[in-house]
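Look over this record before class:
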Amino acid sequence: MIEIKKAEVCCGCGACMNVCPTKSITMKEDKEGFLYPHIDAVTCVDCGACEKVCPVVNYQKVVPAFEPVAAAVQHKDREILRQSTSGGAFTAIAEYVIDQGGVVFGVELTSDYSVRHCMVDKSSDLKKFRNSKYVQSDTGTTYSDVMRCLKAGKMVCYSGTPCQVEGLLLYLENSDYDREKLVLVDIVCRAVPSPGVWKRYVDFIEKKYGALKSVRFRDKTLGYQYSTMEVVTDGGKTLREGIESGKWLRMFFSGMITRPSCAECKFRSIDRRSDFTIWDCLNAYHVDRKLDETLGVTRVLIHTEKGKKIFEQICGDFDYDYVPVEAATKNVRELIASPAVDERRTNFYSDLKVMDMGDVLKKYFPDTFMVRAKKAARRCLNVIGLDVWVKHYLRKE
């Protein structure tokens, strides 16, 4: 049976739970709010299936069989572009699969503001998957659902973090299915924040401002270059703050609330087993000046012949340009290296056990003069229209 001796060796993908023939594995939240497998020793038959599908235990460096191709893309549909985190690439890939009679698995923010994978088979439902969710998703039984759909002859698109995609591939490894019908899209993942801490944060916001009406982890109201997190409550309160001042963004990007395995992630590489890798192109000015960088641009890395054929079928949905792989991946640290973890992380979780969320935020992420000054400066540059040009200078290559 699989045994988690160190938190760093489990990415929480849920492949072990899905593959267990006796349903002896359940995913349970630990003290930091992350899901880990728990085994019922009474019903477990020690078959070893769970160990065989673990992407961390069975990690092998990818040996590419296809020369990767890179592109910078921007969806022509301005409403899809507005709703998307960056350039709307995933929607076009997903619509292609649905047009073939297939189904799409992605991540949604539910009505109770939890984050989970789910399946859709209508283009109108793809809006659930637009916009980033800065919380680790619960994959649930979606690996089993993917297998069922593939065995029924359906085309399937599955989107997730690199470890989730690897978990799915290992789960399917010994199954009889048509690989050409499985389209895999992974993202360049910085790290995944704690679902448990997110629940605490939602409770904190609702107690302070009223019930949540909507959440956008990457809002473009102030422009793509000034990406912010937007929270709207039933009482009409709108909180729109950037990485320099937003509490959730500060927790996330500090590494304070990210999964331990993310600090030792094995899946950070240009070479991947997915068909597509997609991510932001905040430095579009230095990658492709033909695209309107104020609206959002997606970088797409194509890893397979199948992915290339699909891209050629959907490229009419985009304003796009092929770019050298070296240019597309230059200085993208999250693609190849794990981010730093805040050294106060252990103390943060200890305090969170005994303190209110508001008090914890004041202690670890106070609104100092410097924080307020950075916020004021960014807002000022945004208002007068100089924020884009400042970003050009700061990202000068």
